[in-house]
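Here is one such protein, fold included:

. . .
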Amino acid sequence: MSAHQYDEGHTVAGWTGFAVATVGTVVLGLGVCTASAAILAGGVGIVVVSVLVTWALHLTGWGKPPGRRPQEQWGWRARDLTAREGHPGCVGCRLAGRRVRTAESYGDPVVAGSPEPAPALSAEDSR
């Protein structure tokens, strides 16, 4: 039995992003203490890099999709094999252009400039 009963989302992407963001906030704090704009800018830059690193790791399968995963994938080193197609409801996947298409989003193709088909006449309309 697992030590916890919840999928807390501990992943390589999450821990790496957290570590880089922690370094960035330490540098930001150093910039505040020394009143140095250059150090502040460096801290902000590191925090931005942490977001990009986390996003890149998520897209390569080291993150997790939104929602609960199966219990066998709760380990923090579990690779997400569905990341290449994109996750439904995932902002990071949408920003990367990985849109998950559902069955209802596949409609009949519409060609620009094509005439609309005439409505079918019923027996009551012909009277």
Observations:
- The longest helix spans residues 37-62.
- Residues 31 and 40 are 5 Å apart (CA to CA).
- Residues 103-111 have pLDDT under 50 and may be disordered.
- The chain has three helices and no strands.
